[in-house]
Design a protein that fits this description.
By secondary structure, the chain is an alpha/beta fold. It folds into three domains: 144 residues, 3-Layer(aba) Sandwich (Rossmann fold), CATH 3.40.50.720; 166 residues, no CATH class; 65 residues, RNA polymerase sigma factor, region 2, helix turn helix motif (Rna Polymerase Sigma Factor, Chain: A, Orthogonal Bundle). The protein has a seven-stranded parallel β-sheet, with helices on both faces. The protein has a four-stranded mixed β-sheet with strand order 9-8-10-11, covered by helices on one side. The radius of gyration is 20 Å and the shape is globular. The N and C termini lie far apart (56 Å). The protein binds nicotinamide-adenine-dinucleotide (NAD) and magnesium ion. Nicotinamide-adenine-dinucleotide binds next to helix 1, strand 2, helix 6 and helix 9.
């Protein structure tokens, strides 16, 4: 029996992870953590019977305790509760599937407690890769990527000498606005931006795909995971999302991983690695039905959030935190209808321009820079610029 915890169990990755648990009787869930969706959490708790759950929002946690008082489950709340969940004693692997920088502290504590990490939460590595990667080594735990591109790269590196990898080809669908020019993105609404052509995901990452900031975060995430510079990672727009990413070796050979766009595949691969389990439900790639696989250069003038990610990644230190925090804030405001679509990358740019980079920020400094950046972009929005 393999015991796992899921941080962010009510989200897109969290619920798909539970679908996999349902199909694999040798997986047992011992801890679940969510922000506030207690109705869905109750159904999950009754079905999977974890030992411990965290409801981050305190008011909701109080209500939740009442809802499950007939069950032998401990309910905790806030950051202390989230950390208690991340370090739950029986869990061997933590799936970090919460959205945003809130994932940093619980991930660090899970590693400190000797848990293997199945990493979906890309914001953690983008902002705190310099803390997480050495800690993973020191504690001797596994860090398995869940993001489909990173899983593809990981699979394409399998059994190879990593030093012989020349570059990574990171594929991108291009999102709902692929092919549009800057002027055409003016006035785009959350409804337009939430229409992803291939992937069904949480709201924040879907907006990030529309701005291509998601790809920017993935470039920085890949640099940490595979010990490369951001300039060794080339984004290739591939609208069909069949090739999930590739590795080019020094001899010119390219190894790719292909599959239908279904997150269950990389989630399951991370959960059972190095074993491959059957994935029964869902479609498979039928090469005779594929009319074409196409590739384009990303338009970094229109999707300048992607260009800024390379700049943040090259700069390093605290700059990726500024990039990420400005984006988190801007996406939330855009979803509330308070700012324009193009203000998202503009805010990232302005926040980066005014930031004085700190070379090796501590966790405390990262969390402080997050708040300072939020304050900056808030002020920027309120001044109506
Ligand atoms: P989502 O919005 O669907 O779900 C987020 C989950 O995080 C929810 O369960 C929510 O309750 C939980 N959460 C949020 N704040 C929390 C808090 N303070 N405490 C505890 N739980 C909290 O998001 P998602 O699409 O599943 O994405 C999750 C992460 O995985 C993101 O970092 C995203 O970039 C990454 N990712 C997602 C996909 C995908 O297909 N959805 C693919 C690759 C990577
Ligand atoms: Mg991805």
């Amino acid at each position: 029996m393999k015991k796992i915890g899921i941080l962010g169990s009510t989200g897109s990755i969290g619920t798909q992870t539970l679908d996999i648990v349902r199909e694999n009787r040798d997986l047992k869930v011992t801890a679940l953590a969510v922000d506030s969706n207690i109705e869905l959490l109750e159904r999950q708790v009754r079905e999977f019977m974890p030992n411990l759950v965290c409801v981050y929002r305190e008011d909701k946690a109080k209500l939740f305790k009442e809802m499950v008082k007939d069950l032998p489950v401990k309910v905790v709340t806030k950051m202390d509760g989230l950390i208690e969940c991340a370090t739950e004693s029986e869990a061997e692997t933590m799936i970090t599937a919460m959205v945003g920088m809130i994932g940093i502290q619980p991930t660090i504590e899970a590693i400190n407690a000797g848990k293997n990490i199945a990493l979906a939460n890309k914001e953690t590595l983008v902002t705190a890769g310099h803390i997480i990667m050495p800690l993973i080594k020191e504690k001797g735990v596994a860090l398995l990527p869940v993001d489909s591109e990173h899983s593809a790269i990981f699979q394409s590196l399998h059994g190879e000498d990593r030093k012989k990898a020349y570059k990574i080809l990171l594929t991108a669908s291009g999102g709902p606005f692929r092919g549009r020019k800057l002027i055409e993105l003016k006035g785009k609404t959350p409804k337009d931006a939430l229409k992803h052509p291939n992937w069904s995901m949480g709201q924040k990452i879907t907006i990030d795909s529309a701005t291509m900031v998601n790809k920017g975060l993935e470039v920085m995430e890949a640099a940490w995971l595979f010990d490369m510079s951001v300039d060794q990672i080339q984004v290739v727009v591939h609208p069909q999302s069949i090739i999930h990413s590739m590795v080019e070796y020094v001899d010119g050979s390219i190894i790719a991983q292909l599959g239908v766009p279904d997150m269950k595949l990389p989630i399951q691969y991370a959960l059972f690695y190095p074993e491959r389990r059957p994935l029964t439900a869902g479609e498979r790639v039928d090469f005779t039905q594929l009319s074409q696989l196409t590739f384009e250069v990303p338009d970094m003038d229109t999707f300048f959030g992607l260009r800024l990610a390379y700049e943040a990644g090259r700069c390093g230190g605290s700059m990726p935190t500024v990039y990420n925090a400005a984006n988190e804030w801007a996406v939330a405001e855009f979803l509330k209808g308070k700012i324009e679509f193009l203000m998202i990358p503009t805010m990232i740019e302005k926040a980066m321009q005014q930031h004085k980079m700190i070379a090796n920020p501590s966790l405390k400094e990262i969390l402080n820079i997050e708040q300072v950046t939020y304050d900056f972009v808030r002020g920027f929005t309120e001044s109506g610029l």
